[in-house]
Amino acid sequence: MALTVNYNEEGIPDSVPTYLFDQAETYRENPHDAALEWFTSAILGLSLHFGLPSLLGKGEEPGNFLTEEQYGKLPEKFHCKNFDMVDAVELAIASGARYITFPAVLPDGFCLYHTATTDFHSVHSAANRDLVGELASTCEYHGLGLILEYPFGQNRQRHPQGVPQGLMAQAEYVDFVKEQLHELLTQYGPVAGISFTGRDSLENRQTPYDLEDLYAMIRFLQPNALVAFREGVSGGEDFLSVTDPEGKEGLLASNTTRPLEIRRCLVPGEDRSFHPQHAGHHRKLEELWQELAKAHQANANLLLNTALMPDGSLDLEDIQSLLALGERMEKEGRP
């Protein structure tokens, strides 16, 4: 698939990324300002959640019912034979979304891209696929932004008991994170953003992480890439991402400058990973329309999460609801 942007040896685009075509004039002057302008006008994003927990059908956190050895063998069953990137991107476009959010790495440490840092990744699985690479090229071709999720402070494959305390252990972990982020930001063309998860893992630490240094590295490698860490941790994030704005009045009141994203799952209970118990109970058009109206009232984007099936296919219930949402937005505009 031919791309519309050429890249130098460091993976930096030499022209305007396709998702920023509407902000081309601003991009030539200031890529970061162009990205913020794009994000604040995006309205809707689609989150595709997928990984080894999808095979188990017990939600995003599969619990302790598998031993480490058993969990380590799950890549042998990770075929994702029905994960069609074109179908996923076209669904996002049809729903009205202007960006896709996708986990590059999951809290279990499994990477959905080809990395030199570990063998625990999708190319080394039964699928033998670089899912981030496939999705990045498809998004670029269709003019969608791609925001990659990264679970900072969480990597059960490397640190089963949690990332250890102490300056030396912390420095070693940050170097590992930087190596993975460097791969993601130099191997796949323009990335619209890095969205960190794992805020809880930062609480009650003896020494804080220097997140600003990490953010600076991201912006150096890709000046157009926005940075988020859920509700915000250091204050240097480009946008805030919250699950329940009604429970974050203080945060929202103090946020006067940064764009806002409200996250909602297409299943009740905000379970982001596949769980068969939700079948038949996914959120339908009217509820999604209400969520979009709430986001508009809060001057925020709405990020809707769909959990992919164990084989990587899109959920039929979510397809129907998202298509209906896109049709209504096309007819009536934003509620």
Overview of this structure, please?
This protein is α/β, with parallel strands linked by helices. Helix content is 35%, strand content 13%. Helix 8 (211-221) links the parallel strand 4 (193-197) and strand 5 (226-229). Helix 5 (85-95) packs parallel to helix 11 (316-332) and helix 7 (167-187) packs parallel to helix 8. The protein is globular and about 55 Å long. Mean pLDDT is 89; it is low at 1-5.
Describe the structure using short key phrases:
335 residues, alpha/beta, 8-stranded parallel beta sheet, 11 helices, globular, disordered N terminus
Query: What gross morphology would you assign?
Result: globular
> For the terminal residues, how far apart are their CA atoms?
36 Å
How are strands sequenced across the largest beta sheet? 5-4-3-2-1-8-7-6
The profile of the biggest β sheet is: 8 strands, parallel
Low-confidence runs: 1-5
> Helical residue percent?
25-40%
Structural class: alpha/beta
> What is the element string, with H for helices and E for strands?
HHEHHHEHEHEHEEHEHEH
What is the rounded Rg? 19 Å
Number of strands: 8
Q: Number of helical runs?
A: 11
Beta-strand content:
5-15%
**Residue-averaged pLDDT:** 89
Summary?
The chain has 335 residues and is an alpha/beta fold. The protein contains 11 helices and 8 strands.
List the helices and strands and how they pair.
Blueprint: H1 24-29, H2 31-40, E1 44-49, H3 53-56, H4 68-72, H5 85-95, E2 99-103, H6 131-142, E3 145-151, H7 167-187, E4 193-197, H8 211-221, E5 226-229, E6 240-242, H9 249-254, E7 260-265, H10 285-297, E8 300-307, H11 316-332
Parallel strand pairs: 1-2, 1-8, 2-3, 3-4, 4-5, 6-7, 7-8
